[in-house]
Structure formats: C-alpha cells, structure tokens
Design a protein that fits this description.
With 96 residues, the chain is mainly alpha-helical. It is 73% helix and 0% strand. The chain contains 2 helices and no strands.
C-alpha cells in the first residue's frame, strides 16, 4: 500500500504543478491581451482626437480667412483668441 500512496502523492504533486503552470500562463496571456487592447484603443482614440483638432483648426482658419483671398502671415486676433480658448497646446505651421 505504501507504494500506491507514494505514487498518488507524486501524481498529486505533478498535477498541482501542471495546473499552477497552466494558471500562470493563462493569467500572463490575459494580461498581455489587456495591455495590447488598451494600447490599441488609446492609439485609435488619440488619432481621432488629433483629426478632430485638425478639423477645428482648419474650420477656424477658413472662417477667419481674408475675404479678399490675400495670404496673411499672422493669424487675425479673433482666430488667436479662439485658439487660446481651447486651453491646449497647438502649433500653427506655415506651408508654401
């Protein structure tokens, strides 16, 4: 009977060790999926936010453009006030 109990004890130890390995592996895979999904969602939301910001700035630039069509080098005061009211960093670039 002692040999059988020793075998059952070893089997129990092996099964617990395998189950523990499987559990930790599953938890690690789940954590990786969560991290990757959060990174993906934040990247998508960031891109959408940047596109919206660009649309708002483009709209403001169109709204405050010189009616005669002359190119200006300085944003009109009304446009600058509107952009400062957004309370976020922005950069106005000049394209040629």
């Amino acid at each position: 009977m002692t040999a059988r109990r020793d075998g059952e004890a070893r089997l129990s130890t092996v099964l617990v060790a395998r189950f523990a390995r499987l559990t930790w592996g599953t938890l690690a895979a789940y954590a990786a999926v969560v991290v990757v999904s959060f990174a993906f969602v934040s990247e998508v939301l960031h891109a959408r936010s940047m596109a919206r910001t660009a649309d708002v700035i483009q709209s403001l630039l169109g709204m405050y453009a010189d009616p005669g069509g002359a190119r200006t080098t300085v944003a009109p005061d009304m446009l600058a006030d509107q952009l400062l009211g957004v309370r976020s960093r922005f950069v106005i670039t000049r394209t040629t």
